[in-house]
Description:
Elements: H1 3-10, H2 13-24, E1 28-29, H3 30-36, H4 41-53, E2 57-62, E3 65-70, H5 73-83, H6 88-105
Antiparallel strand pairs: 1-3, 2-3
Helix pairs in contact: 1-4
Amino acid sequence: MSMDAVFRALADPTRRQLLDSLHARNGQTLNALCAEMAMTRQAVTKHLAILEEANLVTTIRRGREKEHYLNPVPINEIADRWIGKFERGRLTALSDLKKRLEREDR
């Protein structure tokens, strides 16, 4: 699958929210995913189709329902290709520093 399709899929906040939901609880049905979203079933289905085309979500049919699962491989490939080459160690250190400063501000 092309990275362009993955980037396009990740560009939409609704699709990122669906991925976050699957990350929190993998193997959800369409009904379960719709319950967490403020949109129609048809709209959620369209977003899931885009995520499936980008290989970010896979499905398994269980009887009459499909369970949706997060596929982290394309995101990992992006991380390796685009983040890894920018020295992940320094970025992690900066991120940790930012988190620590945010905690101190509270």
